[in-house]
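Our preliminary data section would be incomplete without showing what the modeling component actually yields. Below, a chain of 436 amino acids is followed by its predicted structure, encoded as tokens that our downstream tools consume directly.
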Amino acid sequence: MELGVSLGEMLEARDRRVSRQNELICGYNRPLICFTMNIAGEIKHNGTIDAAFFVGCREIEKRVDVLYTECSIEKTGCTAYFVCEGEAAEIKKSMVTLEDAQSVGRLYDIDVLDRSEGKLSRSIPRRCLICGNEAGICARSRAHTVAELFERANALCRENICGVLSGMAEEALLREVKATPKPGLVDRRNNGSHDDMDIGMFEKSAETLRPYFHDIVKTTFENAELAPKALMELLQEVGKRAEQAMLDITGGVNTHKGAIYTIGLLLAGCALAIDRSEKSEKILQYAGQLASTVSVQGLKADGAQRSNGQIIYDQMGIRGVRGEAESGFPHVAMTAKWLYEYKSQGMSENDSRVISLVRIMSSLDDTNLIKRGGKEGLDFAKREAERILSYSPEKAVRELYVLDDSFISMNLSPGGCADILAAGMLYNDVQCLFAE
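Predicted structure:
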């Protein structure tokens, strides 16, 4: 629920902010960045504004040497403090560049303070959110209503989030394909069990899909009030366009059809959670609700070309990725947890990914494996995964090279597991857009 704030509450918040600024400057004797969002009206924070604020925090941290960070989300708005190394004047230049670099930067209010120089000022006036004229002139003349300014601010935040999430999705696909060794899959070692694709094709495919991932998030934001079935129908249209673009760039080769479905649902779930000011744990629930509107049982349209997954469901009752989606992506949640735990244990990024893939293989009913090797192929993959998981991480990675050769000789490829791995990485990445 969005809660309005009074003038008195805003003044009290400003006084607390000034007090904390003084404490940090005196305590560290270093330049201080105080970052807030410039939002007109009584509503100072919601899920969309907060997510854009967290993106801004990430951008600040990329540009300065941070010694200490502190962040708070309150009714009166979002505030972050960054104690920095360096010269205050240079830090201010960098922050002005950030504010001016993209549209959402017009909402960033990044103050740079120094014990000797006080608060540093901009040399270039801020621009109006709506007309682009000098913001101070528009404010004094009340050229735009508070409602217009607030709606424009929300739109800028959404636009920013669309770009960030689509970039995260592309990056997750790239990290998945580069993880090595992956049994039977394209990676930096070889093309796995695929003679029609290589890592370069996967990279081009991921790049091609980025604008469609953007459209999935945008479509979700614009239609978040719809019932899940109606929203899913709109998202399916975007998915069809994405699939055709993938086939066009790869010459008809299916590099990411499963990922379009899995990653697309995850992005939509994330957009819904942000729009509704929910916690990140709602992402998978919303994704599952969307998936459930088109259950595998209902995919029996007369004359329609049936997918591999649909045929396997009819013959064996195995639901594959659709069942995983309808259940709220339990393997995505587990994969995200495994990746985090392995990283915390000091394992390299690459090894944490390939070992997580093995854990997915040990329990997921991957219809790609059934298509290529029947039920026997799926059972073989699960047994081998369990065997490898009994080893130390170092030995497990060595054994994966041997298993890769075995999978290639048997023409096995756990493509569904690879999609879950990419989705698990993305699910971890999007956590930064939500308050803890």
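The radius of gyration is 25 Å. Strands lie at 32-37, 65-74, 77-85, 108-114, 118-119. Preliminary results of this kind motivate Aim 1 of the renewal.
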